[in-house]
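S.,

As promised, the nicotinamide-adenine-dinucleotide run. Input:
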Amino acid sequence: MREIRKVAIIGGCGHVGIPLGLALADRGFIVTLLDINKEAVNKLNSGKLPFIEEGAENLLQKYSGKNLFAVTDPAILKEQHCVIFVTGTPVDEHLNAKVHAVLDVVKEYLPFLSEDQLIILRSTLYPGTVRIVENMLLRHDFKCKLAFCPERILQGKGIKEIFELPQLISGCTKEAEKEAASIFEKVAKKTILLTPEEAELAKLMTNSWRYLEFAIANQFYMIAEDHGVDFYKVYNAMTDDYPRAKHFPRPGLAAGPCLFKDTMQLASYHDNKFFLGHSAMLVNEGLPNLLVEQLAKKMGGSLKNRKIAILGMTFKANNDDTRESLSFKIKKLLEQKMAYILPSDPYLKDTLPLEEALKEAEGIIIGTPHDEYKSLSLHVPFADCWGIIHTEQ
Ligand SMILES: NC(=O)c1ccc[n+]([C@@H]2O[C@H](COP(=O)([O-])OP(=O)(O)OC[C@H]3O[C@@H](n4cnc5c(N)ncnc54)[C@H](O)[C@@H]3O)[C@@H](O)[C@H]2O)c1
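Predicted complex:
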């Protein structure tokens, strides 16, 4: 088997592309991050990250300009041994996967690829997409080695996880599988071989499982709240030294670009008969409404013309990523209640500073459990499903 040294990542300056590119550079590959986002490309080439990614800065300083390059010009693709696609895979307005988004991006780069290359799809895919891409390539009389190796890192913790998690490997042919495995064996703790169909489902089911876990925590929170019971006393009792509930997640806004989307992809794949997935969506998407109602109740019923701060606008703690953040749903709900909204987030420049938001606010909703909020003493009514504020109200 030939040695693969040069790897290009299409969509390389995104949240999956950067950790992967840095990990491959760290293992000695010559890595090109190809992206249409010029700003991100320029930032990376000047040694800066376009977003927060724990542990990435050191690696970027070490490899940028040596064996890691960011580019916008696809001409460089011809020289590569392997090309990895990590562009986004959205769902449409009916919550069905946009399989075409994957096909279109592969077609777009087809004139720059060559048949001796290994092509790896790494985005999360609707089941069956790998074979659809394979078929599309064959229709173009393009016989390359095609593999699917889904990413499973946690947003923001990618650098740590990419080296620690097992990597799922699948290929349309044994040769593709072998070559893909030879790359990831140098990066991941171990590799697990699957068929493309198994790998597609393994990735979607992993994310759906996580979404369902959050939903059950959120549903229990809603039950306790409805009955006037202190949920966190129940939660602590359930999880304290009790092995079978040890991994029970805390309630919280289950947002971000992956979990909701992937659960809906699985539902659509199963002809909308993934009842637990849809129920999870109803619960998780209903939590912002509950928080707004909780606050309204504490403030006498109406939020009209009241100043309400949302603390935390990003979709996860200690991160600057706002994609699909449910804090924006809270904002919309507050707008419908005719409140004055004071969005604040230490990770976002265009929001109010914390002190100002606290000074102005008549009521507060915790949108994201950033560390900065954990020592706050709040003296106005608040809604906090995360259980991070301990002050007496
Ligand atoms: N973010 C995560 O932690 C995570 C984890 C596992 C899997 N995934 C999956 O990985 C995929 C990518 O997610 P992401 O979070 O990295 O998205 P992202 O939006 O952060 O990155 C996608 C990148 O692709 C670039 N891009 C878009 N169209 C392009 C094109 N035609 N040519 C070149 N570049 C193009 C964008 O500019 C962007 O930099 C999705 O399928 C997602 O579900 C994400």
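The pocket of nicotinamide-adenine-dinucleotide is lined by residues 10-11, 13-17, 34-37, 40, 86-89, 105, 108, 123-124, 151-153, 155, 257-258 (CB under 6 Å). Residues 196-226 form the longest helix (31 residues).

- D.
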